[in-house]
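notes to self, project folder thing:

trying the whole complex as one job this time. last attempt i did each chain seperately and stitching them together was a nightmare. four parts in total, labels are on each line so i dont mix them up again. if this works i'll redo the older ones the same way
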Amino acid sequence: MSLRHGLLGLLAEGPASGYDLTQHFQTALGTVWPAQHPKIYAELTRLAEDGLIEVESLGPRGRKAYRITGSGLVEIRRWLAEEPVDHTLRQEPLLRAFFFWLMTPEQLDAHLRQEAAFFSAAAEQLRSFAAAKDRGEFGSAPPTQSVRIAIEAGIRLYGALAEWAEWARDAPPVLPERPGAEIID
Amino acid sequence: MSLRHGLLGLLAEGPASGYDLTQHFQTALGTVWPAQHPKIYAELTRLAEDGLIEVESLGPRGRKAYRITGSGLVEIRRWLAEEPVDHTLRQEPLLRAFFFWLMTPEQLDAHLRQEAAFFSAAAEQLRSFAAAKDRGEFGSAPPTQSVRIAIEAGIRLYGALAEWAEWARDAPPVLPERPGAEIID
DNA sequence: AGAGGACATGTGCCTAGGGACATGTGAAGA
DNA sequence: TCTTCACATGTCCCTAGGCACATGTCCTCT
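result (full assembly):
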């Protein structure tokens, strides 16, 4: 139930509407924790029922902004400090790697080339974002500094994956035997 | 629905029972794609209904081993070659990083120290596993070579996260202001 | 005046996944 | 003989998440 704490954390920065929060989850936070608006609105309702957030203001076009409450702040801090961290690397590119031997050498090389290109580009994009932050373009409030730290993790992870994909391309080519190869050959 | 393809990929190596597959998902594959036995048995039934796998043999204690079929092999290869890769870094440690500014400097330092220790240990464990593979202790069949490549990704990712956590500890300490700090202070 | 697009919030359905509960077998050792 | 443990397979329920569908408003530009 990390969406709950993601929303709570964002609201700790200041009041926001479901729409605002959806934007956050489609940009920076979205690469790490994707969430669509239906889930967000539903979770906000639940958080309000539980008294962790409350309606701050009503605006035009039905806009409803929420504000975090005292118990909400206590809860997000409790989560950060006490809840055990989930360390699983739940990444599809890694799952696929276990089955590379089922691809032809040509398919595998093309795949790894694409992956390397994607990961390099993603790392590069984050790097330029980080550079903008370091130039002070987004101020230096504590939340901004935390975003900078999170982005650094993204840079390093995507960078590591890009290098891995290149390494794998050069690794001793697999496949002396391929059971069932007749099916596609 | 990656569990489906994970099972298919494992069965491409040779026949196995739900119990065998559960073991796989609790060790190597499990760090990347956790799955419990109820899900695995259910998915095997569905895969068999769809003709992608079939019962290979019945053994003692109700053991039921499955074998991949021709269409199963076609499907796993189609998935590997054609399905777009999901690149999201869905990692809780990263989500938490966005909210580091809500922790006290002491909490944050302790947290990052623990994270660095965990990631280093995880990387080290994978490194020694990889070394054993490189010594040929598990043979050199194609599936083993793919596992080696997947492990390399794990080593690099955990290594990158360990270095990141150390970097973050040394990063300019945050928190001149902490809204709501009175709640816990 | 009308059209298009960004703003804004929801419902409903289906699948995936986690965890508790339930049951039974075969082998090894005390 | 009895106990314990690894082997082995499943059901059930609840929550999380993805996606399609539905609705309405305000502003800007033509």
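what i see at first glance: Chain B is about 65% helix and 5% strand.
need to look closer tmrw
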